[in-house]
Design a protein that fits this description.
By secondary structure, the chain is α/β, with parallel strands linked by helices. The protein has 15 helices and 15 strands. The chain has an 8-stranded mixed sheet with strand order 6-7-9-8-10-11-14-15, with helices on both faces. Strands 1, 2, 3, 4 and 5 form a 5-stranded antiparallel sheet that branches.
Amino acid sequence: MNALTAWIAAAVLTFAGSAFAAEPDALATRLLDQLDASQYSAAEAMFSPQMKAAVPAEKLQAVWESLPAQMGAAGKRGDAQTSEVDGYRIVVIPLDYANGKLQARIVFDKDDQVAGFLVQPAAPPPAATAAPAADAGFIEQDFSIPASGNAKAPLPGTLALPKGKGPFPAVVLVHGSGPQDRDETIGPNRPFLDIARGLAAQGIAVLRYEKRTHARPQDFSGAFTLDDETTHDAVAAVVTLTTTTSIDPKHIYVLGHSQGGLLAGRIAQASDGKLAGLILLAAPVRPILDILAEQNRYLLSLDGSISAEDQTQLDALDATIATVRRNPDATLMNLPGRFWQQLEQVDPVADVRSSGLPTLLLQGGRDFQVVDTEWQLWKKGLQGDRYRFHHYPALNHLGITSNGKGGMAEYAQPGHVDAGLINDIADWIKAQP
């Protein structure tokens, strides 16, 4: 699951032409001022009709007022940054809280209405994107994932390629839920960057790419499937690697994180025998909507109790979940019911078994999103020499060491994927025949 699930108010999935009137930073500031003043109806009045339907005033209130409970007291805001994409203006404003830094991402349409609103951990500092050191044992090069299925354009990616003579084994990294960049950036943390460079330094090539919902959200304004969102691109990445110089086509693996792990078996079956094995990191088993409700209850109870307002929010979420389960045209987090229904029809354990592939499963003991219940279901469902399990008591959902009671605030603290976990992946790949 995406580490930001509990904070998403709405995702921007539609784009159009532009003819603006007001300055976007002033509009964004007005919106945040209204939220801070508890003027939720006034804030809702700034929304587009679609946003009003997806995030009415009471839901907006629940999201905004949950932040201090998770992040501590609110502090000052940072300077707004404005950009324009496909006719939409995007404003990002840093938000300081006692326990970490967040950012508000606000999107305005051609009528100066709010077409998207997202609160997420702050972006990492520019230094995190620095190129590998000159003496590193690998290089990084641009890599394009060709369009497949209903996709309208290729996706940009990065191939971390070991130096020396190949061919090298290779891993394709598959994201968790929600729009994700190629590094799977969450606050100051970039778990896919850590895994890619850690494995490449040990002689294993790694391909990471922009998730389609992140790179081309405009392609998701109509009907789309789980395969459009994830599977087709993962398969295209695998197929492209099989014809790439310096890559051993008989030793290509998929590493799926969270939702990517849930779909790993499905990706394997669609890859038509081109994979040598699967790696699942923090992968759920139970229905995603059950886990979503469980996550929200946990986060709202971190202060030791569930208030009446918290319970109202949870009841509303439960009602929405029940609706999307029976109505394919209903929405949750701006995703249609048919998408959630398809996601819940996936049987990840059966899919991995049916793939017939050797599989490595990895789980952090401090993961509050994909909890021990999932881990036990994997161990019960996958038995035999083909499967290997590694459990890391001190690691969270991102594979990073954390302390204290697990919560959203830990994702705002900088860290790196555990070196031991990366070594275990490398050792397992090297041991494959």
